[in-house]
Amino acid sequence: MKIYKATHITDDIVNAFSKLIPQLSPDSPIPSKSELEALINSDNTMIFLAEEEDIIGTLTVVLNRIPTGNKAWIEDVVVDESARGKGVGKKLTAFAIAFVSGKGISQINLTSTPERVAANQLYQKLGFEKRETNVYRLTLKE
């Protein structure tokens, strides 16, 4: 298995996102090629991919500089249903942690819904600590 940072967007990557995003969030729109290109060309967003013969997983890291320090958020972690339980999520997350380490980042944050039991166990095994906080969302209508 190969884990790498996307540096350009191919049709294979676009097709992978069209398959993976609905598995993560069925109501979310599938990003277009131009949207994915904008993300990887951003200074603060990185997309990591797991690939065997095909792309089987993805993870996004967003870097934030705020008054309390430089922080990173891991977002949109999804492994294809056919590849779950094979360590793909672990390898993606470990790769992201290693990539962020040494870049002046004081914290890496992520959220995971409680029903994603395996994912929550994985994050704790990798050293993430559950925080006692409330997460709020305001959905804006466009």
UniProtKB/TrEMBL annotation:
InterPro entries the record matches: Acyl_CoA_acyltransferase, GNAT_dom, GNPNAT1-like
Gene Ontology molecular function: N-acetyltransferase activity
Domain N-acetyltransferase: 1-142
Source organism, top-level taxon: Bacteria
PROSITE patterns: GNAT
Keywords, in A-Z order: Transferase
Keyword Transferase: yes
A Pfam family per the record: Acetyltransf_1
Keyword Transferase: yes
The name this protein goes by in its record: GNAT family N-acetyltransferase
Source species: Maribellus comscasis
